[in-house]
Amino acid sequence: MTVFHRSIAVFAQAGNDLIVEHIIEEQSWADQLNILLGDLDVFRIGVHAPIEEIERRERDRGNRQIGEARYHLKTHGFCIYDLEVDTSEPIDQLADRIIAAWTHRRAPNRA
Questions:
Q1: What is the pTM of this model?
Q2: Nearest-5° angle of CA 39, CA 41, CA 47?
Q3: For the chain, where are the alpha helices, taking DSSP H only?
Q4: For 35-74, how does the pLDDT look when each residue is reduced to its tens digit (9 = 90+)?
């Protein structure tokens, strides 16, 4: 993950605004990102859904290893989020919440 994490930092430091979807599977990954992105404006969103919904999606997709969704629940212990959303809510409401949270944040967030 080191190369991926460094690429995020390099693109952002070059002045690019990024939206990065990333499952942070290990504490060491979170620590590395905090160091690499420490001087950058970072807005972290925790994406959740009830476990029953996550497992249903996992089965319905047909290209996921069963049990992977439950395994990834641990990742939420590695991050402090600026906003948390539940993807079982309607998408337009989620988008409105994300935009409002970003717009009304106090100041740029440092990783």
A1: 0.81
A2: 125
A3: 2-13, 27-36, 51-61, 68-72, 91-103
A4: 999 999 999 999 999 999 989 998 998 888 888 888 878 7
First CA to last CA distance, the chain: 17
In angstroms, how far is CA 34 from the centroid of its own chain?
13
SS3 at position 41 = strand
In a domain, 46, yes or no: yes
Tally of domains within the chain: 1
Q: How many angstroms separate the CA atoms of 19 and 17, rounded?
A: 7
Instruction: Say how many C-beta atoms besides its own lie within 10 A of residue 28's C-beta.
Output: 12
SS3 46: strand
3-state secondary structure of 17: coil
Check which CATH number belongs to the domain holding 11 and give it.
3.40.50.300
Backbone angles phi, psi at 48, to 5 degrees: -125, 165
